[in-house]
Amino acid sequence: MTDWEKCPAVESVPGKLSGAWVFAGTRLPVSALFENLESGATVEEFMEWFQPVDEWKVRAVLKHAANSLRAPVLVSSFEDTV
């Protein structure tokens, strides 16, 4: 699971979209980025469609997500879930 608290480009505010992680200073959920990319949109298209989101925030979210995938997995923890 990604620890979004360590990403400065996002925030979670109780009462704002039920505390969902959003791009800082907006009401746009971070999940919207990944949903659009999964549907075939480019990063450039996403930024055009959702202009309140700065490019550095989009890049920071993508970098943070990619880095979270590099975290080491404990074999014993993995075996417990299989």
List the helices and strands and how they pair.
Layout: E1 10-11, E2 22-23, H1 30-38, H2 43-49, H3 55-69, H4 75-81
Antiparallel strand pairs: 1-2
Kindly report how far apart the N and C termini lie.
17 Å
Task: Look up the CATH topology.
Answer: Arc Repressor Mutant, subunit A
Count the E strands. 2
Question: Helical amount among residues, as a percent range?
Answer: 40-55%
> DSSP strand (E) fraction?
under 5%
Summarize model confidence as the mean pLDDT. Answer: 87
Oligomer: single chain
The CATH architecture classification is Orthogonal Bundle
Order of helices and strands: EEHHHH
Overall radius of gyration: 15 Å
Gross morphology: globular
Q: Ranges with pLDDT <50 over ≥5 residues?
A: none
Structural class: mainly alpha
Number of domains: 1
Described by strand count, sense and barrel closure, the largest sheet is: 2 strands, antiparallel
Count of separate DSSP helical elements: 4
- Physical arrangement of strands within the biggest beta sheet: 1-2
Going by CATH, what is the homologous superfamily? Winged helix-like DNA-binding domain superfamily/Winged helix DNA-binding domain
